[in-house]
Structures are given as structure tokens and as C-alpha cells.
Amino acid sequence: LPLCYTLPIIVVTAELATAMPFEGGSVAWIKEAFGPRLGAHNKYWAWIAYVLDSSLYPRFAAGYLGRAIGASEGAQSVIAMIIVALVTAIKLSGTQSIIKLSSVLSIFALLPSFLFLFFGLPYLDLSIITRVDTNPTPTNWNNLLTWVLWLYSGVLSIGSVATDVHDPTKAYIQCGIILLILDIFCINFTPLWTSLSIDSDRSGYHAGHFGEVAAHVAGKWLTVLLTIGAQVSQIGLYNSVSIASDRY
């Protein structure tokens, strides 16, 4: 699905960003293609979608951290508001501050995943891919497809910053392919494969379960790093989605 769905989006985004480097990306392109009426409808609903999407990440980060430290629901709400205030303050300080924040967040978000992969490699079980589940649970295809499509559709939003990208044809293709490889092998498929090799009982999987598996792989210190990485990832997602919604 990433190759059939995400790769074409990367190529189309690179092509349109070069031909029409407008602020707003896909929203501006749809307006140019279908006129102002449909363009306005698309812009409105895209903005609504991004506002709703961005509201999830501070809550996810607060919930993940709250479960790790045993915080109450009220404390998690306070944590979420602090995250919103922090990211807003950084955005107000200017573009360079946002770029520096994004660079730092990328490093701290990816490092725990790389460490998890490194220490988890000896546990990889090749047979887990072809193993038949003797007691299968019903698959919720609606949730599964919605989740996967959402997971790999984020590259479309990078078109909203086309006016700030030098040589978008080359930059978007290179950046998109690197992100696709990292997303498939380093963030999604291989960590899940490692986790299932260690704990194949999927009924016990929940938010934060990778941290529990990490403790088995390398110790409690990796659990702490993964928890920090999860917070940083959510903050990074909130930051990037809010930037895209501002451009719309």
C-alpha cells in the first residue's frame, strides 16, 4: 500500500510543486484545476480536517506520558495544554525557530526507534510473517484501512510549503523517498515485526506496549527513551499539522 498509494502522491506533489509553487499546496492546486467554487469547498473541509487532526496529538502525547508516570486525567489535560502553549509560542517566534524545533524533534523521535531495531534484531523470527493464527480475531477492515491510509497520506501536506523549497522537484522526490523508507522499515513494519517475534499475543497490545517490549529487549532505559520519543513524535506531528493548516 505505501508503494501503490504514497509513492504516487510523492511524485504528484513534486510535479505540482514545481509547476505551481503556491502557498497552500493541494488546496491551491485544486482551486486552479476545478475553479474557485470547488476550491473553496475543498479548502474549508481540508482546514476543518487539519484542525481536528491537530487537536489529537497533544492529547495523545499527554495520555502516553500520563500512563507512563501514572498521572490522572486532570493532570493529562494540563500536560496537553502545556504542549499546545509551548508549540504556539515557538511558532510565534518565527520560521527559523520552527525549523530548529523540527530538526531537534526529528532526531529525538527517530533515535529510540533505531535503538529498538538494533537491540531487537537478534529476536527477529522470520516465521512470524507466514505463521497462521489458530485462534484469529475478527478484523475491523474499516478501522484498518482508515488507519493505514491516514498513516501514509501525510506526504501530501508537504506541498503547502512549496514556496519555501529550493528546487522542489529534486527536494520533494528525495525527501519523500527517504521518509517512505524510514516509515516502512524503521518506524512501522520492522518494529512491529520485532515486537510480535517477542510477544505474539496481539490481544495484549495497547498504547505504550512497545515500551514494555523494549524493557525485555534492552532494559528499562530503552523504555524511558521510547516514551520520550513518543512524546516528541506527537509534538512534532502537532507542530507540522498546525503549520500546514495555517498555510491553508
Written overview of the protein:
The chain has 248 residues and is mainly alpha-helical. 75% of the residues lie in helices and 0% in strands. The chain contains nine helices and no strands. The chain has helices at 2-19, 26-34, 36-69, 73-92, 95-120, 141-151, 168-198, 209-217, 220-247. The longest helix has 34 residues, at 36-69. The chain is globular, with a radius of gyration of 20 Å. It starts with a helix and ends with a helix.
| First-last Cα distance | 27 Å
Structural class: mainly alpha
The topology string of helices and strands comes to HHHHHHHHH
Largest sheet: none
Number of helices: 9
Approximate shape: globular
For the secondary structure, the number of strands is 0
Poorly predicted runs of 5 or more residues: none
What percentage of amino acids are in beta strands?
under 5%
Overall mean pLDDT: 78
Provide the descriptors you would attach to this structure in a database record.
single chain, 248 residues, mainly alpha
List the helices and strands and how they pair.
Blueprint: H1 2-19, H2 26-34, H3 36-69, H4 73-92, H5 95-120, H6 141-151, H7 168-198, H8 209-217, H9 220-247
Nutshell version of this structure?
With 248 residues, the chain is mainly α. The protein contains nine helices and no strands.
